[in-house]
Specification:
The protein has a 6-stranded antiparallel β-sheet, with helices on one face. It is globular, with a radius of gyration of 14 Å. The longest helix is centred in the C-terminal third of the chain and has 17 residues. The protein is of the alpha+beta class.
């Protein structure tokens, strides 16, 4: 793995789909192998979690509400990951999620390199 930047990524995802449906969808988008609630690709391992801080949007509006989305992925680069290819993989995933109508926000050290700057207030950045 290239060591020039921290590639750890967290993607917050708001959807009413069940975890299995999300895992199946993402594994197909990324051509990855499913292992329980995780997905393994050549570049990264994706772990899907329920967000313990989840607050349904209709209950209240919160600044930085993405922190309270229903799910989040923790994405770890594999030992053999190439940083450029890894960033392209994250970019591809975000774009596919947005194109499919999902609300998704990335949090990582390289947000500036992602489409829509990772999705958070991208018009203002």
């Amino acid at each position: 793995m290239d060591l020039e930047m921290d590639l750890y990524t967290k993607i917050f995802l708001n959807t009413e789909l069940e975890k299995k449906e999300i895992i199946d969808l993402i594994s197909k988008l990324l051509n990855g192998k499913v292992n329980g609630t995780s997905i393994v690709t050549e570049q990264a391992e994706f772990y899907l979690f329920n967000n313990g801080d989840y607050i349904a949007r209709e209950k209240e509006q919160i600044v930085d509400d993405f922190l309270f989305y229903k799910y989040y992925f923790e994405i770890e680069p594999r030992e053999s990951a190439n940083s450029s290819i890894y960033i392209l993989l994250i970019s591809h995933l975000l774009t596919e999620l947005w194109n499919a109508g999902f609300t998704a926000i990335a949090s990582c050290d390289f947000e500036e390199l992602l489409p829509r700057k990772g999705g958070y207030n991208f018009e203002q950045r």
